[in-house]
Amino acid sequence: MLVLLLILKILLYILLSLLGLILLLLVIPFNYSGQVLADGRVRAELAVGWAWKFLGINAEIEGEAVDVTLRLLDKRVYKLKSRRTEEEEEKPQQQEEKKEKAKKSRKGFSLKDLADKAFINEIIAYFKKVLDIAKPKYFHVYGTYGFDDPSLTGIACGITGVIKTMIPHAKLRLT
Question: How far apart are CA 61 and CA 36, in angstroms?
Fold first, then answer.
């Protein structure tokens, strides 16, 4: 009987420590940041981190090239590269054959299914819910803008003023 109570006591301590660890992990902050540079070519860098530098995902997108890196304790664990160079190296004749095979293999799925208004409304509602949950604590935008047409620059200046009033805690430093 004494051994059974001792085993139950040990299991209770293990269970309480696991629940404490799970609660602690839920309280640890979730960080994300992104940067988009548009200077002739579009380049985007996205970083998502959890538990400071315990777990993170970094993504770099430049043109059609995508690099995704999974990090654990700030060490690279897995890297996925997606480049379009493989398709460009194929001969045009092989590409035409692949297109013909793809047309034949379609089984009733088309873009019209995705263009359904109810489906699009559900997607928009879903993204609104996600943004309500994961809205950023800080919103900083720094940049320089200007267009060939002065009227477009004036419109962009007006839009930045509207954004400043809509998001009062945002730091917009656009020149």
Answer: 9
